[in-house]
Design brief:
0% helix, 123 residues, 7-stranded mixed β-sheet, 4-stranded antiparallel β-sheet, mainly beta
């Protein structure tokens, strides 16, 4: 069974950068589209980015477009999320999730989830 493990979270000042990693164990990422979600305290979970399995095309929420970059390295079984020009509102727990859908879609069922990594943006 596919397992996902996130890492790379931490405390960063506004304007700073982080790189999150999502590593797969127990399987390959080749056939999965991978999304990053985040959840801030008291708020609903939000999908921030997704990279497809078909052609590695990517999508971003309006709140992170132009600041975050998603990428995948199937050989390393890893999906990355580069966070740049960070804002306090980027604070939250970031989760990666996998779907068997070949394209990123808000309707795709995400069957596998990681445990999350905390990101805090504060001065």
């Amino acid at each position: 069974q596919l397992q996902l493990v996130e890492s790379g979270g931490g405390l960063v000042q506004p304007g700073g950068s982080l790189r999150l990693s999502c590593v797969a164990a127990g399987g390959t990422l080749d056939y999965y589209s991978i999304a990053w979600f985040r959840q801030a305290p008291g708020k609903e979970r939000e999908e921030v980015s997704c990279v497809s399995s078909s052609d590695s095309s990517s999508k971003y929420s309006d709140s992170v477009k132009g600041r975050f970059t998603i990428s995948r390295d199937n050989a390393k079984k890893t999906v990355y999320l580069q966070l740049s020009r960070m804002k306090p509102e980027d604070t939250g727990v970031y989760y990666c999730a996998a779907t068997g859908a070949v394209w990123c879609s808000p309707y795709a069922p995400y069957d596998y989830w990681g445990q999350g990594t905390q990101v805090t943006v504060s001065s």
